[in-house]
Amino acid sequence: MAAVATVPESAPGPVAPRPRRVRFWRGAVLGVAALYFLVPMAVSFWFTVHTEGKGISLGVYGRILSAPGFLPSLLVSLGLAAATIVTVLLLTLPAMLAVRLGAPRLGPVLEVVATLPLVVPPITYVVGIGTALRGGTEALAATPFWATMIAIQSERFPVVLVLAYVVLTLPFVYRSLDAGLRVIDVRTLVEAARNLGASWPHVMLRVIVPNIRSAIAGASFLTLALVLGEYTVAALLGYQTFPVWIVTVSGNDGQLSVALSVISLLLIWLLLLTVSGAGRKRS
Amino acid sequence: MTTTDAGTAVRGGGRARTGSWPAALPLLAFMALAFGIPALALLLGAFTVRDPQTRLSSFSTANVVESLRGAYLTTLLSSVRLSALVAVAGAVLGTLLAQAVVTSRFRALRESVLTASGVLANFGGVPLAFIWIATLGNSGVVTTALGLGSGVLYNFWGLALVYMYFSVPLMVLVVTPALDGLRPQWREAAHNSGATTWQFWRHVGVPVLTPALLGGVVLLFGGAFAAYATAAAMVGSTVPLVTLQIADALTGDVLIGHENIALALSLDMIVIAVLVMAVYLPLQRRSSRWLR
């Protein structure tokens, strides 16, 4: 109401004296920004389709599919992403519900735990993992745990990467789920469902999850984007995930490397549009 | 009234049903394992020196001291300088862009800039390097078209230019809610009380925005400081950066007796990141007070 009342008053005032000056600097800022952000994108696309003397062709995008190692590395990365999403959700969601249902004192603890990975740059985390794996493999060589140490470092499905990715995505998943849970009244929903005789799995899957569907979707897509783009951890631990493959395969083929970069930009765009689409449907 | 009701309800509920905390155990156990063990290994390793002759390990601060001297110190300072430059310039330009969008009458402009910012803030790593190499690299399209010569991109300033590509959008995302939080009514109140535009910004706008701005600077600093893949794909090791140095020390040849220098350098990085976060978190809490 107050806002509506102020509109007619303020409208004639600022409209007359301000626009030209304001519009000029705004136009300048937007113009420079457009130049800086759009030129590399447009140029990169041009770079991939245009070859000196051969004209324009989309051939390089077809070459991606036939490049050696494309499918295996993509499948490894997708598998890692799926395992990471499932693990991080299964770990985080119950803990966050516990805080809301009966252990509010756990809240600050959880917040600190979920923020810690932000403080640690991925490369230092890799250094830590590498050291722990080397030390662990030496120390556990004579014990039954040795097989476990070998298994989590498997070439075909490196569980150790899933562990690392869960840690690295935890802050984002936590933020996303926290925002989702903040909007609904968890206590009332759970108590109502429990009083009506619903079992705990039923409460989780039929009451809580549908109510925070967009938050879960957002968290999942962020995780997917992060895992599909993550280079540092995988490269330094020596695994051939999709981003690592991109670097290997495109080392001596400039056009192919740029084509893959354009594709990855499009992929992030698509993922984030899906996230915001999921968010809009609920609200 | 509602707050006291909610308060008692939560406290009462906490006493009545303390049985839910075990649901948090898997997460805490997981973090102790997957985060705690590497962190501990890093810390112990950074303070351990192995004698090359006797192969005996001993506790020592030699690695850490070494990592803060000579060439190692140079890379550390170079990283800090690059991150600080990217953070400050990115914050200023991001805020200008956000303000241009927030004050615009076109909703579509605002929507598209914010969506694009969301995408570009997440666009980093190797692909970012390749896109800029295609643009300004030695045989890049713009380099050739403008006749810029080689080596424009492969230095400190080139790296800063590339890092801005994800830093400015990140700043737009951080500062837009704060700029939205500056109610038009405040400006009107200031103007009606006779304040000039400058006075409004000096006494109302900037103080309200400060926590968000500083928080954004810190976030940008952290992002640039931790970045590795872009720099590795773009400049190799022509620009001294601590992340590149750590990767070199991990994979390549290190002087005997200095195996743990990568761990010590990592520890230095974490200390800097912790200091930076210690500034950020309280600020974020303060800024959220104004932005409901």
TrEMBL record, chain A:
Spans traversing the lipid bilayer: 28-49, 69-97, 109-136, 156-174, 214-238, 258-279
Annotated source species: Streptosporangium brasiliense
Domain ABC transmembrane type-1: 74-275
Keyword ATP-binding in record: no
Bilayer topology term: Multi-pass membrane protein
CDD domains (UniProt xref): TM_PBP2
Family annotation (SUPFAM superfamilies): MetI-like
Annotated compartments: Cell inner membrane; Cell membrane
Keywords noted in UniProt: Cell inner membrane, Cell membrane, Membrane, Transmembrane, Transmembrane helix, Transport
Protein's UniProt name: Spermidine/putrescine transport system permease protein
Stated family: Belongs to the binding-protein-dependent transport system permease family.
Keyword Zinc: no
Record lineage: Bacteria, Bacillati, Actinomycetota, Actinomycetes, Streptosporangiales
Pfam families linked: BPD_transp_1 (PF00528)
Automatic annotation (TrEMBL), chain B:
Signal peptide: none
Domain ABC transmembrane type-1, first and last residues per copy: 76-280
Swiss-Prot/TrEMBL keywords: Cell membrane, Membrane, Transmembrane, Transmembrane helix, Transport
Location(s) in or outside the cell: Cell membrane
Transmembrane segments: 25-49, 82-102, 114-134, 154-179, 212-235, 261-283
Coiled coil start-end: none
Pfam family, one: BPD_transp_1
Topology versus the membrane: Multi-pass membrane protein
Family the entry assigns: Belongs to the binding-protein-dependent transport system permease family. CysTW subfamily.
UniProt-recorded name of the protein: Spermidine/putrescine transport system permease protein
